[in-house]
Amino acid sequence: MTEIVRAACIIGWPVEHSRSPLIHNYWLKTYGIAGEYRREAVPPDQFGAFIQSLALHGYAGANVTVPHKEAALALSRPDERARAVGAANTLWFDGGLRSTNTDVEGFLNNLDVCAAGWDRALNKAVVLGAGGAARAVVYGLLSRGAQSIVIVNRTPSRADALRGRFGDRVRIARWDELNDQLGGAALFVNTTTLGMAGQPELAADMGRLPSHAVVADLVYVPMRTPLIGTAKARGLRTADGLGMLLHQAVGGFALWFGKKPEVTPQLRALLEADLDPSAR
Ligand code: NAP
Fold this sequence. Notes:
The protein is of the alpha/beta class. Helices cover 39% and strands 19% of the residues. Helix 7 (156-166) links the parallel strand 8 (149-152) and strand 9 (170-173).
């Protein structure tokens, strides 16, 4: 008897750098599921046609990454979360092509695991950046009852757009006010590319944060960012970008392969070895 093989993929342009195949193929093997997870390099002008023939390509669904997250939203029936964030990173079929944004739960669940109780007194959170990832973070923080979220972004108009989308609990501060804003913040989140390999460093004075503050960085290349290193050295609790990447993958796998997978230390070690072979 021929075994039915279910397949999913990550669609991006470029897509070679994506670690999602490593995560999903590890889970497929671990749970003994006959399936495959592949990379699909699709340029922007071919994305619509590719999505329309996703099932014909044999896919039960897909992850979507840069630069297709907004187009994926427009070409599918988004859930409330993807619509609110304005971007979709996960597609599946349910009476048509549906979409969601699992960066939200990736961010929140990683914090729950790394810094239990982080949302108990979320009087003030400072979010650096105002791109797609920042929208997912702000949506998640509001859903956990954040009373005040201060957005600091290099380009003020993008921060304005974020306040317009999410309302009064979101405030804006200037780039040169970042260190002052860290005073009294319960959470500081970097959603920019600052600190990423090949990008400028993120200059923020961790000494301004209170001792109970939590620091989260979405960057995961390098795996140990200077921001996380400095926060740890100060004794603050941290949640890193690799943890978020692992947790955001859970929802898609469950939708396509019918099993909610676990983020285990073994899986994390596999990704760590891939990101930093010298640490093996
Ligand atoms: P995006 O929409 O392009 O936004 C990029 C953000 O970075 C903007 O706020 C931009 O500011 C800021 N920025 C870039 N270069 C800067 C510089 N030199 N100085 C100051 N600010 C700078 O990208 P995104 O999709 O939000 O992704 C942002 C980061 O999150 C990336 O590192 C991505 O890998 C990471 N991410 C991680 C996960 C995870 O699972 N760990 C998930 C999603 C995203 P301007 O508005 O001024 O350009």
